[in-house]
Amino acid sequence: MKEINCLGKRCPVPIIETANAIKELHPGDSVHLLADDPATEIDLRAWARMTGNHMKVVALNEFLITKSKVD
Amino acid sequence: MVHITGNFLAESPLSPKAREALADALDQGWSDPGKIAHSAAQARILRDQSMESLAQGLKVRPDELEVLGEPALGHFYAIGGLLRAKDNLVHSSVDRKEIFALARTHGKMIEIPVDISGRMEFKSLQKAAKYSGVFALQAANGETGVIQSVDELVDTAGHLRISCDYSIAGTRVGLPTKWDSAFFDARAWQGPQGIGLVAIRNQPAWQNPLPHIGALRTPQSASLPLLICAAVALEEWLEDEATEVARLRTLSAELREALRTIDNVDIAGDLTESLPHITSMSFLYVEGEELLRKLETAGFSVDSGSACTAEDLQPSHVLAAMGLLTHGNIRVTLHHSTTSAQIRELVEAVKSAITDLRAS
């Protein structure tokens, strides 16, 4: 599973890095994101809704993003 | 030097007529209406005429209306005056920060969530209505322009006392069938800054929330020239409100349609359920502050709800509550002076800025 560390980085950087990482994956594959910007969870949910992918909060500042469709 | 070709900020300059009224009022309404001199009597007449005109325009009775020189205190008067120690303060998750502050200070509150379109959830309000309290009903949201179904909400609120916030909606949304207090801000009808109006319908239930002596409900320290200016601005506003609302709705529809041609844009609320002059949009993978600067350089002033533009660096609680994207956000406000050509120019500037920012 691909890991992205965006701790200390402000939005939209965690969302941009997640989107870039997910481009290289196949549907069903996941990315593990570490990010502590307070907007991350809200923006990641909105991003998932807008792009048709899936996200879930694993723990504080930890997110699992799963690619749901072919680009 | 940057030449601003489009003001799409929430604020707008006073209309020439309101500006003229302000200048005249400074000549005639300088005296303290509370004194007995001839100039004071003249000031009193001007004040009473202005209050009557405002009451008529706002569809409340003159004896219900009070003026405030500090509009930010309006929520405190309107809600605080109805709130008792045992009460809950019921408010929506997209309400103003002042309401959250009031709720926190009061200590007993119930927050009503909104759906993705920004409308309050009736089921949660139904549950909240089982207890005693005050329902802070925001008729329209200043960040997104989303309008609530005020009559249905009031019906659902049961025995809760209703304090209406019309500071953004102004006269664009009718008052609900039942209300106990209401708050207006003269800026809603392009009047001057610094005039708030509180209407108290349920006078027996309202108690002045501030320390006071005597029967005065508000401090009566508002500027008389500004009050006169607010009354003239409202009269002028109401003269062509219906035409102007329809014109802005058409412009807003054009704006939204053009914006939807940009990839990955999140537009707040549906136009049919929103004030026609406010549009909030967020663009994926773009920083709000950079977008704001690019547009300013291109000659367009807009507002933003993104965290990078906020003083506390927190994302907009309104966008967050609706589940909308908070980064890359801008808010566009249309005014009486806004033209279709300006909208087209703004959209081109937004498209160009987004393309540049996403490529960098």
How much helix, percentage-wise, in residues of chain A?
25-40%
What CATH architecture of chain A would you give? 2-Layer Sandwich
| Number of alpha- plus pi-helical segments of chain A | 2
Mean pLDDT rating of chain B: 92
Order of helices and strands of chain A: EHEHEE
The CATH architecture of the largest domain in chain B can be given as 3-Layer(aba) Sandwich
* Top CATH class of chain A: Alpha Beta
Oligomer: heterodimer
Low-confidence stretches of chain B: none
Topology:
The complex is a heterodimer of chains A (71) and B (360).
Chain A: E1 2-5, H1 13-23, E2 30-34, H2 40-51, E3 54-59, E4 62-66
Parallel strand pairs in A: 1-2
Antiparallel strand pairs in A: 2-4, 3-4
Chain B: E1 6-7, H1 16-28, H2 38-58, E2 65-68, H3 74-80, E3 88-92, H4 97-106, E4 109-112, H5 122-128, E5 133-138, H6 150-156, E6 161-165, E7 181-185, E8 196-200, H7 224-239, H8 241-259, E9 265-267, E10 278-283, H9 288-297, E11 300-301, H10 317-322, E12 329-333, H11 340-359
Parallel strand pairs in B: 1-11, 3-4, 3-5, 5-6, 6-7
Antiparallel strand pairs in B: 2-8, 7-8, 9-10, 10-12
How would you sum up this structure, described in words?
The complex is a heterodimer of chains A (71) and B (360). Chain A is of the alpha+beta class and 71 residues long. Chain A has one domain (2-66): TusA-like domain (Translation Initiation Factor IF3). Helices cover 32% and strands 28% of the residues of chain A. Chain A has helices at 13-23, 40-51; strands spanning 2-5, 30-34, 54-59, 62-66. A four-stranded mixed sheet of chain A has the order 1-2-4-3, with helices on one face. The model of chain A has no long low-confidence stretch (mean pLDDT 94). Chain B is α/β, with parallel strands linked by helices. Chain B folds into two domains: 6-13 and 240-359, Aspartate Aminotransferase, domain 1 (Alpha-Beta Complex), CATH 3.90.1150.10; 16-239, 3-Layer(aba) Sandwich (Aspartate Aminotransferase, domain 2). Chain B has eleven helices and twelve strands. Chain A binds chain B through residues 10-12, 15-16, 19, 37-39, 42-43, 45-47, 49-51, and chain B through 264, 266, 282, 284-287, 307-308, 314-315, 319-320, 323-328.
